[in-house]
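Board notes (copied after class):
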Amino acid sequence: MAGQAPGGQTTPPNINSLAAQGIQGAGMGSAAGVGYAPLSVSATNVAPTNVGVSGLSPTVTAGQLSSTSLSPYMNPYTTSVIDAQQADILRGANIGLDELGAQAQKAKAFGGSRHGIQGAELGRGVAELMGQQASGLRQANYAQAQQAAMQDIMNDYNAQIANQQAGQFDIGTNLQAQLANQQTGLQGQLANQQTGLQAQLANQQADITGAQHQLGAAGQLGQLSNLGFGMGQTVNQNLQTQGAMQQALQQAVFDNAAQQYGQYTGHPAQGLAYLNAALGVTPTTPQTETLTSTPGLFDYLTLGASINAGRPLG
């Protein structure tokens, strides 16, 4: 910084101080560069979506005829048919009994053993016929009920098989869709991960470049400071040389002044010698003691100050 001198004049900055400040700044910048840590780079985790099988079709269970109630499959008109047939048979039997009675009366054997046997045989035949017809109708009805029940059991079994196959197809389609979505999701996550890594690496490189620039700037500052320090040394040497020259010049001025002062103080004695020589008088030489001294720097400075005491400041 420039200092303020008397009279409002500014003094030039001290190059040595500036060089010292620059070297200190360069050292601090270099120390900061030594402790530099680049930006960390981390990749995001890639997690696939879960693939699960849902909606499994139940197992196929075949119905059993033994555990199937046949009542819903029985023909409700079978009993009516049997009753009608038995009524017809009984009607025919009654007609036959009437004929047997008429024949027995004609033979005057009505109520006899023969008549009783013939009536019993007729009744037994009627009962057998009625039983055969009823059992045949019931057997046919039961067979038809079993066939209808078996048809329903097979229809239900086939429906279960079809539903199971349809469910398995849906499961396969669902799995394929889930796998496709999983693959798409993984590709998207990998793409995002790659983009993020590239961005982080770019930021890291920019940060490293900035740190390198800072280190370079610190190095340049150090070099400039060293240059300034050398310039300061050169200036100091030049000032020392100039000071020595000024000291030698001042010393010559002081020596010349001392010589002139000696001549001035010895001038009367020299004039008296000239006069005695002209008159032919030999003066008696007094015994004198000469004191000599070697003036120092402060003596010269004092003498110069006394000489310049009457001169105006220029």
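Comment from the instructor: Residues 308-314 have pLDDT under 50 and may be disordered. The helical segments are 15-34, 78-106, 113-279, 297-307.
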